[in-house]
């Protein structure tokens, strides 16, 4: 049933690479502090924060696809199945709409980053802010996809 | 008025089963639209909520824990605990609690603890003649030490919310966590004697030493994390990353149970799960911003302080609110909403914020073992193949112990404040 999803594979791989790079950067700052105390890297903290924000941006859409966002479901489990499924479809669409709006405003937010420079590395903040554009776009995409899937399943059942 | 609308829409969405993160986002969106606040505030607040050097230790601790778990460390920790306490009446049950305490020094969540220790010990306990509901109750309730003994995911969240030092918060949880563990051992022992549960054979000193050696690399990770952070050698973030590298090295080179081909899958699954928590934290920053502009914390403070200004009563009220919330809400979500709201009240009656933090986390962790929403109960009942109702009943004595420890921690600040006070 579960088809291979190349988009998810790309996002998840990107997330893993960013995470491993983050591990590498933090390890570099720890080891140099211990063994080469005369070398001080000032860029490691900022870099790891940038990488972390990208880890989240690339990973969250995959988490949405896998249904890993926590919810309180003790009430909905008592609902009739049809109602629960209708709610689920409606919620997916609301989530999609929400992140579509966030996407639009993230573009503005990222544009602010064109002129702003990061405090230590002096690179344009747009490289970090763009993560919000990416995460909201793909969250919206996967939310809509989920909504469509739920709808389709219902029509199949009839 | 608008604030009430914000809360109502949030609670309704939440109870209808909408994910917590999106309930926060969508109810905030309603508010912003009605108030006419420019929506560009959403990505801005979300970004600033996630952009934190401290938060990034959450995925790293989870990855390290899962790598170690795959490398067979849980089994070794259990064997070692069993070698030490197994010969006492109710040995396996006591070993369950002891293993939870050791495991707590590696993992930062209670759920990881229930799932990994429960998967091994619940079937083993049933086989030895322990009642299934008792086995599940011991597992679920003892896993609450996980987020109290450092490292602790909830404490990291509190640190990012309040700006308190995560190192100090970790230190603050150490003594209460150990007290919690030993109290649970006491009730376990009492019940085991009463019900005449079995004990294990006493091992020779040499055999005990052998299990210690076998577990030593796992125990080394506990020492690395705790001594590293608490001794001021690493920041919590650095410690979490060092733990990932340590887990990789031990898993591949020493225990040789971690196959390199499995590593990408473990990393992806563990990190992916935490990214959903980060989106929650980001959107909670937006929600919290609205709460602050609406001056909700002041209103709540006024409300509570109008009932009483007696610190004893106020602390009791805060505990009651948090226990109630903990029954329904997932820990991180409850923290991001209630810490900013309740902290001013606690400060007004002269509570130390660090003491407050330990109390809050303990309250919410207890909520993991209470119905209707107690994830540790769900997992334990599932492993033991018993109904939730039976488990809830069997868990009552343990719950009472947890509440007694909560009472102690609430009204005895030195338990939380002595260790952080030593740090200068």
Automatic annotation (TrEMBL), chain B:
Keywords: Cell inner membrane, Cell membrane, Membrane, Transmembrane, Transmembrane helix. The keyword Transmembrane applies. It is a multi-pass membrane protein. One of its GO terms (cellular component) is plasma membrane. The chain crosses the membrane at residues 47-65, 101-122, 169-191, 212-234, 240-258, 270-292, 312-345, 357-384, 396-423. The keyword Transmembrane helix applies. GO terms for molecular function: transmembrane transporter activity. Its main location: membrane. Residues 7-414 form the TRAP C4-dicarboxylate transport system permease DctM subunit domain. It comes from the Bacteria. It is found in: Cell inner membrane. NCBIfam families: dctM. This is TRAP transporter large permease. It comes from Candidatus Caldatribacterium californiense.
């Amino acid at each position: 049933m579960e088809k291979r999803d190349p988009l998810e594979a790309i996002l998840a791989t990107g997330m893993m690479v960013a995470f491993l790079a983050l591990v590498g950067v933090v390890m570099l700052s720890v080891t140099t502090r211990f063994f080469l105390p005369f070398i001080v890297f000032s860029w490691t903290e900022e870099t790891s924060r940038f990488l972390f924000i990208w880890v989240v941006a690339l990973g969250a859409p995959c988490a949405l696809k896998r249904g890993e966002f926590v919810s309180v479901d003790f009430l909905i489990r008592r609902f009739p199945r049809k109602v629960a499924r209708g709610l689920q479809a409606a919620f997916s669409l609301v989530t999609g709409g929400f992140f579509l709006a966030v996407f639009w405003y993230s573009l503005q937010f990222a544009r602010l980053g064109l002129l702003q420079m990061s405090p230590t590395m002096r690179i344009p903040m747009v490289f970090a802010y763009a993560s919000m554009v990416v995460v909201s776009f793909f969250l919206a995409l996967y939310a809509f996809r989920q909504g469509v899937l739920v709808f389709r399943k219902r029509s199949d059942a009839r | 008025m608008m604030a009430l609308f914000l809360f109502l829409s949030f609670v309704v969405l939440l109870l209808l089963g909408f994910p917590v993160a999106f309930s926060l986002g969508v109810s905030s969106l309603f508010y912003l639209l009605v108030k006419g606040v420019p929506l560009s505030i959403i990505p801005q607040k979300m970004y600033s909520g996630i952009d934190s050097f401290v938060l990034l230790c959450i995925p790293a601790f989870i990855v390290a824990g899962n790598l170690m778990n795959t490398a067979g460390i849980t089994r070794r920790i259990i064997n070692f605990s069993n070698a030490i306490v197994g010969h006492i009446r109710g040995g396996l049950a006591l070993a369950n609690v002891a293993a939870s305490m050791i495991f707590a020094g590696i993992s930062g969540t209670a759920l990881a603890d229930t799932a990994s220790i429960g998967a091994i010990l619940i079937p083993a306990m049933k086989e030895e003649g322990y009642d299934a509901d008792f086995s599940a109750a011991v597992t679920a309730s003892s896993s609450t030490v996980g987020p109290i003994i450092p490292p602790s995911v909830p404490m990291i969240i509190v640190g990012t919310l309040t700006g308190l030092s995560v190192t100090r918060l970790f230190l603050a949880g150490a003594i209460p966590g150990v007290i919690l563990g030993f109290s649970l051992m006491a009730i376990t022992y009492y019940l085991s004697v009463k019900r005449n549960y079995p004990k294990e054979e006493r091992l020779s000193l040499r055999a005990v030493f052998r299990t210690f050696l076998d577990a030593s690399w796992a125990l080394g990770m506990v020492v690395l994390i705790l001594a590293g952070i608490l001794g001021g050698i690493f920041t919590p973030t650095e410690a979490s990353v060092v733990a990932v590298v340590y887990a990789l090295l031990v898993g591949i080179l020493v225990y040789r149970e971690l196959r390199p081909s499995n590593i990408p899958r473990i990393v992806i699954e563990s990190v992916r799960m935490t990214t959903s928590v980060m989106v929650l934290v980001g959107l909670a920053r937006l929600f919290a911003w609205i709460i602050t502009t609406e001056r909700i914390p002041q209103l709540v403070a006024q409300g509570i302080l109008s009932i009483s200004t007696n610190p004893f009563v106020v602390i009791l009220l805060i505990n009651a609110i948090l226990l109630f919330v903990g029954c329904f809400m997932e820990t991180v979500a409850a923290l991001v909403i209630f810490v900013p709201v309740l902290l001013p009240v606690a400060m007004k009656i002269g509570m130390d914020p660090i003491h407050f933090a330990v109390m809050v986390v303990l309250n919410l962790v207890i909520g993991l073992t209470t119905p209707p929403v107690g994830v540790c109960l769900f997992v334990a009942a599932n492993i033991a193949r018993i109904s939730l109702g039976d488990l809830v009943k069997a868990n009552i004595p343990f719950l009472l112990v947890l509440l007694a420890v909560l009472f102690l921690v609430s009204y005895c600040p030195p338990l939380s404040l002595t260790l952080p006070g030593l740090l200068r």
